[in-house]
Design goal:
The protein contains eight helices and 40 strands. By secondary structure, the protein is mainly β. It folds into three domains: 148 residues, Jelly Rolls (Sandwich), CATH 2.60.120.1100; 151 residues, no CATH class; 260 residues. The strands form nine sheets. Strands 11, 13, 14, 16, 24, 25, 26 and 28 form an eight-stranded antiparallel sheet that branches. Strands 12, 15, 19, 20, 21, 22, 23 and 27 form an eight-stranded antiparallel sheet that branches. Strands 1, 4, 37, 38 and 40 form a five-stranded antiparallel sheet that branches. Strand 9 and strand 10 form a beta hairpin. The longest helix is centred in the first third of the chain and has 14 residues. The radius of gyration is 32 Å and the shape is elongated.
């Protein structure tokens, strides 16, 4: 018979609590003298002494969802528009599937997880999660969730160093050397053509991931991206500007350019994974190969069918026919009896023909609605396409831009100059509005998955979700193109500049009727919202100073773990069976909830069974042991990481008393 005393550390040793060779829930003891165990022996737990923290155990598997869109209290589902519920988890340290933390740390992990779960360019960093306390006694009453967002479009970042430098841009086709030089100017970066004929791969320029600390995307709060294209004019007189060269200016979502990690074979081409170049319509009429450049929204100056004057075209990313991913489709911004009867003629001077005196291209983003216009020589703004106005003037779906939905939240400038434009032909980015204050929360980098929902799903291998969202009916221009759109996009409240009809909802438990794709939500009990697990302003929100909405938990949830604890001897030959997980186990003993002094939490909890349960080692020969590997686990065989300090486990080995030998 042998008693073996196992422990994780000596009291005077400073140790790394989470290292599993010396942790209070998993440790390894090496024996200086080999332990000899007789044949047909068995083992039981004699006693256990451990310390159980009053901290909260937070897990990587804790999960909830957040949704930006209409308040669904009065009907509808998340699949009705251009949005998708976003999976949220506590922002765990790398390599920790679970961790025991203080209440303060728990709150911070959930708060950061909530903000990562809402990477909208005007919302990220403005969600709050805090402990709710009684105003008088300061007693713990649960938790408070608060929604908020920015009400301004920020500042003009065109002059910021993150945009206004050569290193901030790169060739669209990463495997070739571009032939556009980028320079800095007091008004913003310039893009100038070099000598020679530029092909489609050499002439594209998009934002790069360098200098990205302050490279925020276009604000949806009326943010403006403006490109001065007057340097591309081939004739400039008092009558106006004339354009006889091929160029493009547009907005493109940011996505991973790393084809290996994103699974995008065409990442180096500046394409999203499911861009189907062969389905693009109404582009490249002059042999310009403009269809080889992906944009979400783009203005193009080129010929029609390779002949005649240059005209101004507008294209947008839509669902490709026959389920073939996505493509660019020309928008008929003309011909419905309003401002433009045909494509704008770019080759004629203002007073010498049907052209216009165009100097700048302007994109203005208001919530879901993108307006495209140009600025003429008198600095007047002339609308090219604007859903808000055009939808009231007889425009149908084929005449209107699709809404800027969730896959397009993070939009950046992109341009292309190709062909035989003279040396010195140039464009200049003069305005790009974004909220630099977002960077007080995190690096709002171009390819940072924490602040970019599209990139996050690429990295997780969830391109199918992105594709399905980009192929919903509102982006399908094969359906109902000669009728008014069935989905009506919303802009900004004209009085207070709020997002019109848009709220942030929180789903803490599965709500599969309206909030599909939330089956794995499991945080309602933990956060105290068991009675009202779906939070929306119309359901259970309290309005503050707009647009603030707060939610109070239904009660005071108990966050301290009450999971059962089991002692395991991991490196011996005994076998028990854990039917709950459906497999063999090394469990020896189930610790009671309360120790011998009737305590559940605290230091020095002592457990000693009144009757030991022995488990056979199944050793027909003598065992020689040099190590003891002990772990304390929950009923699901996961380590009990809420244990702290020193753990002592005393094992009793003995020869089995009921062994029957049969001589052969």
């Amino acid at each position: 018979m042998s008693l073996v005393i196992c422990s994780n550390i000596r009291d005077d040793i400073i140790y790394q609590r989470d290292a599993e060779y010396e942790a209070p829930y998993s440790f390894h003891n090496s024996l200086k003298q080999t332990l000899k165990i007789d044949p047909d022996s068995e083992v039981a737990v004699q006693s256990v002494k451990l310390s159980k923290s009053a901290n909260i155990v937070v897990k990587e598997s804790d999960q909830w969802f957040q949704f930006f869109g209409k308040d669904l209290k009065n009907g509808g589902t998340v699949d009705d528009g251009p949005y998708y519920p976003i999976q949220c988890n506590p922002s765990m340290p790398a390599g920790f599937p679970s961790k025991a933390v203080s209440m303060e740390d728990f709150v911070e992990l959930i708060k950061k997880g909530m903000n990562i779960g809402m990477p909208h360019p005007d919302i990220y960093g403005n969600l709050d999660f805090s402990v709710s306390r009684d105003a008088a006694t300061k007693a713990y009453q649960g938790f408070e969730v608060k929604s908020d967002y920015l009400l301004t479009k920020g500042s003009n970042n065109a002059t910021d160093a993150s945009f206004n430098s050569a290193g901030s841009w790169e060739c669209t086709y990463a495997n070739v050397t571009g032939r556009i030089t980028i320079g800095s100017d007091a008004s913003g970066p310039t893009f100038t053509k070099q000598a020679g004929d530029i092909d489609f791969a050499e002439g594209g320029v998009m934002i790069s991931k360098t200098n990205e600390t302050t490279k925020v995307p276009l604000s949806h709060m009326g943010g403006v991206m403006e490109m001065d294209v007057s340097g591309m004019a081939t004739a400039t007189t008092a009558d106006g500007y004339q354009y006889q060269n091929d160029w493009q200016v547009g907005l493109c979502r940011s996505f991973s350019r790393d084809g290996t990690s994103s699974g995008n074979a065409n990442a180096d081409n500046g394409w999203i994974p499911y861009y189907n170049v062969n389905e693009t319509t109404g582009m490249g009429g002059g042999g310009s190969n403009f269809e080889s450049h992906y944009y979400d929204y783009v203005v193009t100056c080129e010929q029609v069918a390779g002949a005649g004057n240059r005209v101004l075209k507008v294209h947008q990313a839509v669902a490709a026919p026959n389920g073939a991913g996505g493509c660019l489709r020309e928008l008929e911004y003309y011909g419905f009896g309003f401002t433009h009867t045909n494509r704008i003629d770019m080759s004629q001077k203002k007073n010498g023909g049907n052209g216009v005196d165009l100097r700048k291209i302007r994109f203005t983003l208001s919530n879901e609605i993108l307006k495209i216009s140009f600025i003429d020589g008198s600095n007047a703004e002339i609308v090219i396409t604007d859903y808000t106005v055009d939808s009231t003037k007889g425009a149908v779906k084929k005449n209107l831009l699709a809404p800027v939905g969730q896959t397009r939240w993070n939009l950046y400038p992109k341009l292309c100059i190709i062909g035989q434009a003279p040396v010195g032909a140039a464009m200049q980015l003069t305005q790009f509005d974004g909220n630099l204050s977002l960077n007080t929360q995190a690096n709002y980098g171009v390819y940072n998955a924490d602040v970019n929902w599209y990139v996050r799903n690429e990295h997780r291998g969830l391109t199918a979700i992105l594709r399905s969202l980009d192929r919903r009916d509102l982006y399908n221009y094969e359906i109902g193109i000669n009728a008014a759109p069935t989905y009506i996009p919303d802009g900004l409240d004209s009085k207070d500049n709020f997002f019109e009809n848009r709220v942030i909802s929180y789903i803490f438990a599965p709500s599969t009727v309206q909030y599909q794709h939330t089956e794995n939500a499991n945080m309602a009990i933990t956060l105290g919202f068991e009675e009202t697990p779906v939070l929306t302003p119309a359901t259970n929100g309290t309005a503050g100073t707009a647009p603030i909405v707060t939610y109070q938990s239904n009660g005071s949830p108990s966050l301290m773990t009450t999971a059962s604890l089991f002692v395991r001897l991991d490196n011996f030959t005994q076998q028990s069976y854990n039917a709950g997980v459906g497999r063999p186990s090394k469990i020896l003993y189930h610790l009671p909830r309360f120790d011998t002094s009737n305590r559940e939490l605290g230091n020095g909890l002592y457990f000693e069974p009144t009757e030991r349960t022995y488990i056979k080692l199944n050793n027909s020969e003598t065992l020689y042991a040099n190590t003891m590997d002990i772990s304390i686990a929950n009923d699901n065989e996961q380590l009990a990481t809420d244990l702290v300090g020193k753990t002592i486990v005393v094992l009793h080995f003995r020869k089995a008393s009921n062994v029957v030998k049969i001589d052969k």
